[in-house]
Each structure stands twice: as C-alpha cells, then as structure tokens.
Amino acid sequence: MRVSVFRKEHFNAAHRLWNSKWSDEKNVEVFGKCCNPNYHGHNYDLVVQVTGEIDPETGYVIDMKILSKIIREQILRRFDHKNLNADTEEFRQLNPTAENIVVVIYNILRPLLDDRLELKIKLYETERNYAEYPA
Ligand code: NI
C-alpha cells in the first residue's frame, strides 16, 4: 500500500533572473521585469511530497515531525528571507527560476530520506505559476 504524504512550507526570498553570458539587452528581452537589477521578492509555497509503503508498526510513511524538521533546517534556514542570487551558494551561478529552485531543493533533500521513499518537490512562485520535480 503506497501512500503519498505532503508537507507544505513557506518562505520569502528575493531574486533576479539573469544570464551572465548574455548582454543586458538580451537579458531584458528574455526576462523583462524579472531581471530588474535591484531584485524583487516572492512568497514561495513549497510542497514536499513523500511516497512509500505504510510502516506497519507506526502507520506512517514518514514521521512528519522528522520531515518538517529536515525541511526547516535544510531549506527554510538556507533560503527564507534571503536574496537567492547574492546570499546563497546554490544560486550564485545558477539562475534562480522556479525550475532550478525545485531541482536544488530536491537534490538537498533526496540524500536525507530513506532510499525506499520517493520524493517530489512542488514550488509555487505565484498562485498561478509553479514548478514540479521530478516531472
Ligand atoms: Ni521573480
């Protein structure tokens, strides 16, 4: 019996979309307001999905206290109230799009969970725009 459990979290962060290999003009053409030099913020909603068998002894797929602690310590502490481009190692070179952020979050959390558990990350950048990984 495989079941998915979900932990929803929230963080605020600033970013600027930018490709340093391109000219200023090309960046403005592709990213528009999203590449404004003084950054802009988002209220990100993060949904971490863990799928696996129900442990017959606990009745849990994963103990949500443990999952929420891992997310808090590994993701929120790292990204909440940060400027992603300027304050984080992960996005110093990598464009902080929702697509890249979900992959980064997945890669941070994956090794911390039991191999038998499946992981999926969903990140809402706005109410209407979100990214999911793995697709
Ligand atoms: Ni943005």
CATH topology: Tetrahydropterin Synthase, Chain A
CATH class: Alpha Beta
Shape verdict: elongated
For the CA atoms, what is the radius of gyration? Answer: 17 Å
Report the end-to-end length measured between terminal Cα atoms: 23 Å
Helix and strand string, N-terminal first? EHEHEHHEE
Compute the average pLDDT: 97
- Just name the CATH architecture: 2-Layer Sandwich
Ligand list: nickel (II) ion
**Which secondary-structure class do the elements indicate?**
alpha+beta
Describe this entry's structure for a reader.
The chain has four helices and five strands. It is α+β, with helices and mostly antiparallel strands and 135 residues long. It has one domain (2-133): 6-pyruvoyl tetrahydropterin synthase/QueD (Tetrahydropterin Synthase, Chain A, 2-Layer Sandwich). It has a five-stranded mixed beta sheet with strand order 3-1-2-4-5. The longest helix has 16 residues, at 64-79. The radius of gyration is 17 Å and the shape is elongated. The protein starts with a strand and ends with a strand. The model has no long low-confidence stretch (mean pLDDT 97). The protein binds nickel (II) ion. Nickel (II) ion (NI) is lined by residues 15, 34, 40, 42. Nickel (II) ion is lined by residues 15, 34, 40, 42.
Topology:
Layout (H helix, E strand, L loop, with lengths): L1 E14 L8 H8 L8 E14 L10 H16 L2 E2 H4 L10 H12 L8 E7 L5 E4 L2
Parallel strand pairs: 1-3
Antiparallel strand pairs: 1-2, 2-4, 4-5
The structure holds nickel (II) ion.
The site of nickel (II) ion has 4 residues, from β2.
